[in-house]
Design brief:
12 helices, alpha+beta, four-stranded antiparallel sheet, elongated
Length: 294
């Protein structure tokens, strides 16, 4: 009597199907909205809420790693927003490149991030995923030190009291060209600051009103220099990383990506909820143009 052989269990159709990056990105965008809504509800609850979660948003930037593509995206370009919901203790334990949860999330979503970059700027379409480098920055830091400078043309002084557009800054320093070499910028600043420095008026025959006016103008010259020098590319250095000067400490990269399995294991072990959305292509284009400028 013949015996029936048991059929080998094969993989399901869904397991054999190729990974759909576009569908995954759409799911993550929907998940982003859900996490944001849940966070808004938590903020309306009492401080003693048993749900001890905090949601933090980050900007993910990308650049090209390989020398063959280096000229296409030579500096960091913002491409996506990442949000993470986790316990308050875990959220404050570490930040930036040293944060294992952030590193794991970016590693896990490297396929979706590559697609988001391609949606944001066509130049990324010809870049292989393994040629991409990523960095992260807290959303608040990005808006203060990067967005306000590049998109709105503003820069805050050290005391966070004044803002000045780059157009006004060039007028104060008596510069006509929109793109000014750093040496020319320094020369203009030194010339005016020397003439207006308060120490020059000690013991002079200037009236008190004239001294106050000169002192105020000296402050404007200093702010104008800070406004224009922020984001000026030094030879061999990143323009994007220079934005905000020493006050900007939250930018971290490039990240050392984990394997997909390792990233998923880390996310699961830490109990982190995460999602991402792509950025507006118009904004990505503005950063790309500036990043590719010599």
């Amino acid at each position: 009597m013949a015996t029936k052989k048991k059929a080998k269990k094969g993989k399901s159709a869904s397991e054999n199907a190729p990974f759909n990056v576009n569908a995954s990105l759409m799911r993550l965008e929907k998940r982003y909205d859900e996490l944001s809504l849940a966070d808004a509800k938590r903020l309306q609850q009492d401080e003693d809420s048993p749900d001890d979660l905090v949601t933090t948003e980050y900007i993910v930037t990308a650049r090209v790693l390989s020398k063959s593509q280096k000229s296409s995206v030579p500096d960091w370009v913002p491409i996506a927003q990442l949000c993470m919901a986790r316990t308050m203790a875990d959220a404050h334990a570490s930040e930036g490149a040293s944060d294992p949860a952030i590193n794991a999330a970016v590693s896990l979503y490297c396929r979706e991030l590559s697609l988001a970059a391609a949606f944001g700027a066509p130049v990324f379409q010809s870049v292989a995923r393994n040629e991409m480098e990523y960095a992260v920055e807290n959303m608040d830091s990005f808006h203060k030190h990067v967005y306000e400078v590049v998109i709105n043309g503003k820069n805050e002084d050290a005391k966070n009291e004044n803002v000045m557009t780059k157009v006004d800054a060039r007028t104060v320093l008596k510069l006509e060209e929109e793109s000014v070499d750093k040496s020319v910028l320094k020369q203009a600043y030194r010339k005016l600051s020397f003439a207006l420095h308060p120490d020059r008026f000690v013991g002079s025959d200037k009236t008190e009103e004239e001294i106050k006016a000169a002192s105020a103008e000296f402050g404007r010259v200093k702010l104008a220099y800070e406004t224009l020098s922020s984001g000026v590319r030094d030879e061999g250095k990143s323009w994007y990383e220079s934005l905000g000067g020493r006050a900007r400490t939250d930018f971290a990269g490039p990240l050392s990506l984990l394997s997909l399995a390792g990233a998923q294991s880390t996310i699961d072990a830490m109990g982190v909820q995460s999602a991402l959305i792509q950025l507006d292509p118009k904004m990505v284009a503005q950063f790309l143009v500036r990043a590719r400028r010599p």
